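Worked problem 6 (solution included).
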Amino acid sequence: MKACSFDHIRRVTLSRWVLRGEREFRGGVSTDSREIREGDLFIAIQGEKFNGNQFVMQAISAGASGALVDEPIDPDTLAQLRGTSATIMQTDQSVRALGRLAANYRRDLRSKVIAVGGSNGKTTTKQIIHTLLAQKFNGVASPRSFNNNIGLPLTLLSVEPRHDYVVLEIGTNAPGEVGALGLIAQPDMAVITGVGYEHLEGLRDLRSVAVEEASLANFANNDGMIFLNKSSPELIEALRLTKIPRVTVGLPGDGADIEINDILQDMTGVSFSLNNRSQFHLPLLGRHNAVNAALAIGVARRMGLSEAEIQSGLSQVKPSPMRLEPQTLGSHWILNDAYNANPSSTEVSLRTFAELVLPVVNRRSPRKVAVLGDMLELGPSAAEHHIRMGELAAELNLSALVTIGSLASWAAISAEKRGISSFHFPDIDRALENQNLWLRTGDAILLKGSRAMHLENLLKGLSVGKLTPKVDCA
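Solution. The predicted structure is:
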């Protein structure tokens, strides 16, 4: 962020002085004492397994000019801090204070703020937008999945006066979380990729998911624009009364402003045209990525990019780690989609995997083995959704299904009933101990499961050779 006085920070964050020092704040904000740069402000965040208030002295010793805490500092530490010339402020709750600081800073930004929400494809769409806009402008995007009440404010506070844009990612686990982030972001452009079954423990059903995701539009600037997937009827209904101008993206028959035609997928990625005119190629696997790309193209056109600049930018997009990421491991081709999972994204992964025409090895096509882990946070409907994934694996005629975790066993049972070779294991260690049962030389493997399952760790234990981190689609 632009450097300012500690007086300003104290007022904005509703804090009180603990110590007033002489070190100069240089604009950097960090919640990690291990990543402090000279002159940063350290904001002490508390989580389930950590308490940043315990690391104030480390942050100041590393060069922080000041710290914002939300609990009293013990007398011994306070005595040490008095000799450092650092500024210490105390607030009611550091996460709320971080949000207040980011919201205040956002009001003074000249950069275009683009916020991406939706049940699936947020990170990929964010990445495509950033890659396209970087052809012509200077900007930043949320790192990794900085899409919550800590990551989003930190991303906003990383914007500098020289930046033309920032692309934010907005996630949710419960009602009201999108609205809270939207209130901070106040986007000039809001992108909603669609809705699907996600976090049903908090969001209950598909209609509630749609209402939650659609609430992002309520916080777009009055002269802003929303871009959305018209193939999601629940989303369109939830936005029925929204008056912000919109651009819709969809398939033939959806009646969208930007119609996606002629989608073709091969091992180099996905090709498509828009409104039966402009032709594009995206080096990412998955037909659904044509929709993500079309949403990004809508934003890029709004920002003034030419078709040639957009085509050039698309060619430079790389797969995000563990999001339909192609890899090789010994004789095996891996489709690593292990970052996270819900029913909608798992269905997309299975269909993408089934459709791919893989190279023939030793005069035979590779077997396709799907490894599915638990899809978490689905509430009472968890068994139903896992059963459906097993049925789908059978419908797609995959060679084998391996399931890991207690919930995923439902998928194995339903697939086995429909004639697919199925293997269920309670955890990754058991799957590795019995890999001779389900894995053959040259198999293609799909990994898909919720983040807590860490299915990528399966690759570390397979006795088949060295993992090649990335294989470009092109």
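Discussion: The mean pLDDT is 93.
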